[in-house]
Amino acid sequence: MRFQLNNIKIWFKNESQPKVYEFLPNKVNVITGGATKGKTSFMSIIDYCLLSNKSRIIEKTINENVSWYSIDFNINGKHFFIARKSGNSGSISSEICFYDSNEIVELPLPNITIEELKKIINKEFSIDDKGDYFLANNKLISYRYFLLFNSISADIIINSTNYFDKAYYEIDSDEALREVFLMAIGVDKMQNIKNRKELEDIQKQISTLQRKISKEKRSRENIELSLHSLFNECKDNNLIDVELEYKSDEVIDVISKIVEEYVVLADNEKTFNKIDNLNKEKRKINRQISSIEKFKEEINDYNRNLKNYSDSLKPIEYINDNFNEVIKSHQVLIFLKGLETSLNEIRESYVKSDFKTFTYQEDLNKLKEQQNKIIIEIEALPKIKPTLSNEATKYIFIGTLKNKLNQIIEEKSKLEVTDTKYLDKLNKDYENLEALINDIESAKHVMGDELNNSIMRNYSLINSMPEYKDYTIRFDVENMNLKLKNPNELFEIETTGSSSNYMFLHLCFYLGLHEHFIKFNEEHVPSFLFIDQPSFPYYSGEGAQVKNDDKGKLVDAFSLLNSFLKYIVEDLKRNFQIFMVEHAPKEYWENNGFNYFHTVAEFNDGVGLIPNYAIKQKE
User: Fold this and answer.
1) N or C: at which end does the chain have fewer Cβ atoms within 10 angstroms?
2) Would you call 550 helix, strand, or coil by DSSP?
3) Three-state SS for 175?
């Protein structure tokens, strides 16, 4: 992607003269100087103006004195100006000023939202905001992910295994990094990612439908097994002819008919209960009637006895009246007197007895009336065919059969039948979409070889890794790091043992990567590279000097950068910019004839990113 940074401009809170840093095309633009002068903040300012979600600009001295930051650049033949207000204490500002013309901005004023500007920049990075392009981490693809390939930060330049500053660009998974990388080198395409996402969604729908259809099939099979079991049970209970053949579409009607035929038995249960209760009541009344009639008979016997006792007095009275004629003995007279007294008491008792007038007939009539009513009610009930013991067993079975059949009928009524035409359509859509997706594996092989050729071309130019001079070098996409191989050995290595070697490997990789982008007209990555201090392995601290034996290595690194730009500009006829912050003084490139180097600023003797006139003085 064509990109050229023209300048970085900084406005200050004390309203002093803004500071402008100019950059040249097709040059290694170097900001050199001592530590803590704000060199690294150049990349942080570029990133901040490109709408980073975080501010990595140093607060003390820099951000605390700045009101606005801006970058002026050309992208794909267009001129863009983006200014962003400074945040407070590490925070970010949402106030953005944007122009897509050669507008001269004296003081930025907010005129666009972050989301609106992101859409504009996404379009320049060939990212379609209208499509749902998601990475493996379920985040929408943004131009900001591709900025990952535009910087070699101090955190990774001498790292033995890590070649990408994922944390800086908020890429939170290796899989997402690999996806972005494959798109960047031309293996994968944005449309491929969208198609794969749609393919994944279709596959989920297909799987869901298949599970639903399988569940429906199992339900139908279970219902069929249950009906077959009921059918066989009916045969076992002699309710169905053993010769009758099972037919799936008729079995419910057959079993239902059996239940209907025995419905009378179901009604008999209520009749049995009612008759049983009436008979119990009838037996109770019969016992009461029997008791009253027996009591009546005993009273009659009692009254008859009393009357007989009374009649027994008559001979005694006669004897008393004719005593002198019949009996002459005085003792007999005394006995007769006593007997007469007793018999008179019996007579009086009979005369006074209530049993002579005892009224039981009214109660007896009432009971007989109730008895007749019960008999009539029993006769009015339906006549029940006597059941044998095996018929009672059938009655119990029919009740169970009816419940099971009703349950099966209910389950069958709830069955859903999915139209397989929709499943067929999804399978067809899947096949059509799958055919549109490029063969990533073959593209990975072809583009991987091309990338490795570019990396190897740069690697062959360095002289500071003599022990690995004859080695071949390639980038391992699976592990996302460089591998070296001795032509006389079987296995590759990735450990080279010194920070200087790792610095050179990082330079070779990123220069080879951008060479590949340029050769294949990559549309997602801008044509610039920010490098944070290649001299890092050789400086041990503030004020330290590079050892004599390391100066040659540093010159070799700068020579590699100069040769790269010469190859891009003169051989490939393309444009490219490198921005480099360095401890090393400008003599390293000026005295060695590196014509593609340009010194943007020197931060020495109290000079830094923020001019002294813009720094708020302590009171």
Assistant:
1) C
2) helix
3) helix
Q: In what order do the strands lie in the sheet with 3-12?
A: 19-22, 3-12, 66-75, 78-85, 96-99
Q: Coil, strand, or helix at residue 87? A: coil
Q: Distance between CA 301 and CA 353 in Å, rounded? A: 13
Q: Distance between CA atoms of 506 and 518, rounded to whole angstroms?
A: 18
Q: What are the backbone angles phi and psi of residue 75, rounded to the nearest 5°?
A: -140, 120
Q: What is the pLDDT of residue 267?
A: 56
Strands 78-85 and 96-99: antiparallel
Distance set, CA 369 to CA 60, 294, 378 (Å) = 116, 19, 14
Non-local CB neighbours of 129 within 8 Å, separated by 6+ positions: 119, 122, 123
**Contact (CB, 8 A) for 478 and 509:** no
Spacing of C-alpha 330 from chain mean position: 129
- C-alpha span between 485 and 551 (Å, rounded): 27
Q: Cα(177)–Cα(139) distance, rounded to whole angstroms? A: 12
- Choose among 432, 464, 447, 436: nearest CA to 559: 464
SS3 at position 569? helix
Angle ∠(167,171,175) on CA atoms, nearest 5: 130
- CB neighbour list of residue 552: distance below 8 Å, 6 or more residues apart: 464
pTM: 0.68
Chain segment 47-101, per-residue pLDDT in tens: 999 999 999 999 998 999 999 999 999 999 999 999 999 998 778 999 999 999 8
DSSP state letter for 197 = H
Q: Which of the pair, 200 or 452, is modelled with greater confidence? A: 452
Q: Bridge partners of 601?
A: 31
Percent of the chain with pLDDT over 90: 47
For residue 561, give both structure tokens: 């950068």
- Choose among 57, 55, 61: nearest CA to 94: 55
Tens of pLDDT, residue by residue over 544-572, are: 566 667 899 999 999 999 999 999 999 99
CA distance 95 to 52: 13
Identify the bridge partners of residue 528 per DSSP, sorted by sequence position. 577
Mapping DSSP to helix (H, G, I), strand (E, B) and coil, where does residue 399 land? helix
Please report, as a single letter, which amino acid is at residue 208: T
Tokens of 400: 């169970």
Query: Residue 36 is encoded by which pair of tokens?
Result: 């803590």
Residue 258 phi, psi dihedral angles, 5° rounding: -65, -45
Show the beta-strand stretches assigned E in 104-196. 151-152
